[in-house]
Amino acid sequence: MSEKKTYQAIVDFKDLQDKGKIYRKGDTFPKPANKKVEDERLDELLSSKNKLKKPVIKENLRIN
Question: How much of the chain, in percent, has pLDDT values that exceed 70?
Fold first, then answer.
């Protein structure tokens, strides 16, 4: 069984690929949490390969 990774916005941004949904720093990404996001899109948001030229989300750390 694989665990689903969770992400958090690290800056305020508008998701232009999700009807302009607004994320504020600290928000969980994506909304709703069960929404399917392609790996390519996650890579874009985790890196500087987006319109803001900087990472806008980070992977949440899991504490077991």
Answer: 91
